[in-house]
Amino acid sequence: MSVLLPFLRPLAAVPFIIDGLDAVVNSDEHAQRANGLLEYADSCGLTTPPVALVEKAATATGAVSAVAGTALSLSIAPAASAYTLAALNVPVTLINSTYFNGRQLVVSLTPALRGAALSAGLLALGVAASQRRKLKRAAANDDGAAGQCCNGKAHGSHPGHGHCRKHSNGQPGQCRKHGKHPHGHGPQGHGHGPQGHGHGPGRCCRRRRKEQD
Question: pLDDT tens digits, residue range 101-151?
């Protein structure tokens, strides 16, 4: 799926870009497509918006559709772009698949199913983009956490420095006598080696202090 995403996104976005630009240029024609719903609403006694407002709505919807489609085709915020197009496709599908025959609202099955399939595909692209982003973040967090000691006092983030007991089979800051560091400096247990750095009082084995007391 991840291999096909760069090709699927432009294919799904091109119809929205073309239709969106056409709605911006010819907003009156796109507004006329909603006449069936408007006539049905008027027959039910509902208040319908004026034609000028419908044309402005068509222009705004077309602009958003063109921008979101362009962003999706270029993989710019692909999840948000796909979800936006899926949401915009719902009223567009409703308008394109219905008409009023003077008595009732008739729904054309083929355009409705086509629009539903397109919305489902856009949702799938959005979910795939979201999961891919989560995987990238998890991988980045794992890379950033590599070499970090559990007590947050690690030195460096590459293997061999600051590794906690879980990853290095030892405790950071152990002295040479009781730990397994190849080097030990000073009475405070300043340890260097593949298991990490330990600094400050209390890092050396407390048992040794008690024995000295």
Answer: 777 778 888 889 999 999 999 999 999 888 888 888 888 887 666 555 444
Q: What angle do CA 71, 77, 82 make, to 5 degrees?
A: 70
CB 98 within 8 A of CB 106: yes
Q: Decide if 25 contacts 65 (C-beta within 8 A).
A: no
- Dihedral class, residue 37 (left if φ above 0, else alpha if ψ from -120 to 50, else beta): alpha
Alpha-carbon radius of gyration of the chain: 32
What pLDDT is recorded for position 180? 46
Query: CA-based diameter of the chain, in Å?
Result: 102
**What pLDDT shows up at residue 141?**
81
Closest listed residue to residue 40, CA positions, set 84, 94, 115: 94
In sequence order, the β-bridge partners of residue 183 are 192
The pLDDT of residue 205 is: 52
**DSSP states of 74-123:** TTSSHHHHHHHHHHHHHHHHHHHTEEE-SSSEEE-HHHHHHHHHHHHHHH
Question: What DSSP character marks residue 47?
Answer: P
Q: How far apart are CA 54 and CA 28, in angstroms?
A: 8
Whole-number Å distance between alpha carbons of 2 and 129: 9
